[in-house]
Amino acid sequence: MSCCAASASLSVPGSAHRPDRSELLDASHDLGDGLVSTRLAVPDAHCAGCIAAIEKAVGGVEGVEDARVNLAGRFVTVKWPREAVDPEAVFAALDRAGYRSGLMDMAETGPDPVLRRLFIALAVAGFAAGNVMLLSVSVWSGADAATRDLFHWISAGIAVPAVAVAGRPFFAPALHALKAGRLNMDVPISLAVILAVALSLHETLTGGTHAYFDASVTLLFFLLIGRTLDHVMRSRAGAALRTLDRTTPRGAVVVAEDGSHTWTPIGDIVPGMTVFVASGDRVPVDGTIASRSVTVDLSIVTGESDPVVLTTGEIVVAGALVVEGPLDLTATRAATASFLGEMRSMLEAAETARPALSRLADRAAAVYAPAVHLVAAATFAGWLVAGDGLHHALTTAIAVLIITCPCALGLAAPIVQVVAAGRLLKSRILLRDGGALETLATVDRVVLDKTGTLTTPTVDRATLGGISEEARAVAAALSCQSRHPIARAIEAACAGGVAKVDGMREETGRGIEGTLAGRRWRLGRADWALDADALAALPEERRAWPVLSQDGALAATIQITDRPRPGADAAVAALKDLGLAPILLSGDGETKVAETARWLGLQDWSAGATPAGKIDAIRQMQADGHRVLMVGDGLNDAPALAAADVSMAPSAASDVSRSAASIVFLSEDMGALPSAIAVARMARRLILQNFGLAVLYNAIAIPLAIAGYATPLSAAIAMSASSVVVVANALRLALPDRAGGAVKRATPGSEAVTDLPPALGARA
Amino acid sequence: MNILAILIPAALVLGLIGLVAFLWALRSGQFEDLDGAAERILLPEDDRPNP
Fold first, then answer.
1. Are the Cβ atoms of A77 and B36 closer than 8 angstroms?
2. For A527-566, what is each residue's pLDDT tens digit?
3. Phi, psi (5° rounding) for residue A457?
4. What is the Cα A511 distance to its own chain's centre?
5. Which of A32, A302, A367, A499 could crosslink A473 through cysteines, CB 3.0-4.6 Å?
6. Cβ separation B1–A71 shorter than 8 A
7. How large is the greatest C-alpha to C-alpha distance in chain A, in angstroms?
8. Mean pLDDT, to the nearest integer, of A98-121?
9. What is the ipTM of this complex?
10. Contact (CB, 8 A) for A270 and A255
11. B47 touching A, CB under 8 A?
């Protein structure tokens, strides 16, 4: 169950907020008989082992009658008698099991109502299509007049209520569009279905020979399949994203009068409270700056990407990102609306983002919809003028409406995306924005960051043996101020008691400093932390390592080992196989970057790159006509991630990098990188093929329909067949070893470590 | 043709049973955690339906 070793390190110091009993009861749902059910978020749950561990932990709490994990929603439903509700026991049980937990927001609980409606419509349409088709087949095989009329009546009895129920997902938007004076693709669909049903009813009442109930319900059934898949794809990306966001704190660290830090949920922060925000975190509430000047990135608010320096007393708004801090602010507004609004808009952007190719389909639909109506109307008028009678003219017009229904065209892109996203999700890769998949397919340059991306810095606990308990506690306190991967590694190695250090602040690229008992401690680069004498005394080869200093004197040197991320070398080899040119751009010193590049077999690398330098390099490549994929994780990579055409970040990246990246990979394994590109390329090929198929179908079928060779039924079958062909083509992406063929299995990281010469291990 | 009086209602009733069974499954929340259902087959002695 090692896969479930939930990261216990909450990024928030101090005790996490626990909702009290009344809060829990408020959020509970009354089941009657004195029982209530409560939903608790468990964002780290992700496998069968997690289900078992969580259900065992929660089920073992006294009074709990039942605990059931919902893996898709990442929550556990607890059923317990009202009087037995005990938040402390249940949260403690989850903590012991190693899972972070919290109360679910009321808004995000409950199943998706839209999907439910689509499912119901789909089931009804499927039932009706099957049964009406059975009856129709009997009629075509030559039933006598009395049986035919009876079957028409039965078909009408099934089809009319079925269309009324299953047609709603199309009728409602069509009505909307008409009211707004627009035409969308729901209008011809609704028109065709309603006209076909009306005509068939007329036939049935008058004892006519042809009824087209089958055509209308089959049409609805196939259209609903496409629509449901499209919806599942969208909401799936959204759900995964919501889970990611749930792991980020929904509150802030409030500094009490006595200087103690307490984690408080966002809703409990009232004006006047002092809130602490670490570097790399977003400002949770609007407030004024109480500490010294800080650098914040207001791009989310102003759209201006250059960070600005704000000084004491200035207003900082929720959503701003602290680039260089930490920051103490006095809350001026309790409202969480701005913060939540930002979160929500990010989610919505991801859910509604569509690749350029499907946007192309939308644009085509805007032209196509009026054209369909014109062609159908012209067909009707043409046959009427030709003197073929109202009935024949109407049937032909309906056939044209059905056959031109752009299902194949509409399905071409979304169905491929559904399959591709599902495949990526299986490899634990999340698409943050739909367009990323399409851009990823056209990428020809890959820029890689070193620290945190290709390598993970780790601190060997054994090498810390010699340092004093006080120094260790100070290092732990200082390192938890920063999100830098090295600080994270030091924090992990120095776990234990934390010293109460005051006035801590981070200097980007240098280190963190703070004071304890009147003495200034610094953790960071040797040339910054030490005074001249201490630096001169330090042996040359140890100057590249971070040090802990006390008033400029050396307290400890910390040995950092660069542990290659699992599969990094295999990933680079696979990228080359895909015909891409990976480039290593690192802020590190030349020797270490050269060493890593040699080990990975990279010819193209550059050391000492600043964030601005990385952007320049990317812009230069783009100016040369290349499409650039940037892979990075650190705060300093965020601008480069945003500048590249498409970007990827590991889920462990800082919040800002994660929100700048268009793709987030949850796995430790770098193999995610080439496999994502392979899937994207395959998806692009399939989308283009599907467009080709759809256009071909229309080019053949429309002239036949206008000429009157298609009845509404044969039109419905042809339309459905074209959709099935498109769907089947897309499903090829789900076949094993199609897109993944180029991706070699990554070598385990442990083997790779031993390959590394010790010299590579030392780094600043 | 009298056979039709039996076969058609029989076909319709069977179809309706399927439809009602699906709607019941949907209503009782069996489609709310498809990921969990896929993982739960790996757990021993856990075959309870969703509450």
1. no
2. 778 887 777 777 776 666 778 888 888 877 777 777 777 7
3. -75, 135
4. 32
5. A499
6. no
7. 109
8. 72
9. 0.81
10. no
11. no
CA dist A548 and A466 (Å) reads 13
Tokens of A396: 């032909």
pLDDT at A124: 94
Q: How far apart are CA A200 and CA A395, in angstroms?
A: 10
Query: At A275, which amino acid appears?
Result: V
Output the pLDDT for position A491.
76
Task: Please tell me the distance in Å from A539's CA to the nearest CA on chain B.
Answer: 55
- The average pLDDT across A719-731 equals 81
Interval A337-363: pLDDT, tens:
444 444 444 444 434 444 444 555 556
- Partner B, chain A 69-98, Cβ-Cβ below 8 Å: 69-73, 77, 79
- A449 classed as catalytic: yes
What pLDDT score does A126 carry? 92
- Residues A111, B22: C-beta atoms closer than 8 Å: no
Active-site residue, from A44, A286, A449, A669: A449
The secondary element (H helix, E strand) that includes residue B39 is: helix B34-40
Chain B residues with CB under 8 Å of A77 CB are: 51
Q: How far is the C-alpha of A557 from the C-alpha of A295, rounded, in Å?
A: 29
Contact B51 A120 (CB under 8 A): no
Q: A586: which 2 tokens?
A: 């690192």
Beta-carbon separation of B15 and A130 below 8 A: yes
Residues 6+ apart with CB under 8 A from A456: A485, A489, A562, A563, A564, A565
Best mutation target, A116, A131, A151, A228, to test chain B (most B CBs within 10 A): A131
Counting every residue, how long is chain B?
A: 51
| B5 touching chain A per CB within 8 A | no
Residues A762 and A542: their CA atoms lie apart, in Å, by: 8
In angstroms, the CA A110 to CA A119 distance is 16
pLDDT band at residue A692, thresholds of 50, 70 and 90? confident
Chain A touched by B45 (CB under 8 Å): no
> A578: closest CA among A448, A686, A436, A673?
A673
**Alpha carbon of B15: minimum distance to chain A alpha carbons (Å):** 6
Rg (CA), chain A: 31
Longest CA pairwise span in chain B (Å): 54
Count CB pairs under 8 A between chains A and B: 61
Pairing relationship of beta strands A261-265 and A294-297 according to DSSP bridges: unpaired
Please give the residue of chain A at the shortest CA–CA distance from B48. Answer: A68
Cβ partners under 8 Å of residue A5, min gap 6: A98
């499927």: which residue's tokens?
Answer: A126
C-beta of residue A90 within 8 angstroms of C-beta of residue A56: no
Check CB contact under 8 Å for B46 and A52: yes
Residues 6+ apart with CB under 8 A from A217: A125, A128, A129, A132, A158, A159, A162, A163, A166
Tell me what the mean pLDDT of segment A696-705 comes to.
84
How close does chain B come to A112, measured CA to CA in Å? Answer: 9
DSSP string, A72-109: TTTEEEEEEEGGG--HHHHHHHHHHHT---EEPPGGG-
Nearest CB neighbour to B36, from listed A70, A119, A130: A70
Q: How far apart (Å, rounded) are the C-alpha atoms in residues A748 and A474?
A: 35
Residue to substitute from A51, A80, A137, interface B, most B β-carbons within 10 A: A51
Can you tell me the distance from the alpha carbon of A586 to that of A576, in angstroms, rounded to the nearest whole number? 20
- State the Cα–Cα distance between residues A716 and A711, nearest whole angstrom: 9
User: Cβ contact (<8 Å) for B40 and A111?
Assistant: no
Distance CA A150, CA A156 (A): 10
H-only helix segments in A250-336:
299-302
Task: Give CA separation, A640 vs A603, A615, A628, A637, A649, in Å.
Answer: 21, 5, 10, 5, 11
Contact A66 B26 (CB under 8 A): no
B51 contacts on A by Cβ (under 8 Å): 37, 66, 68, 77, 79
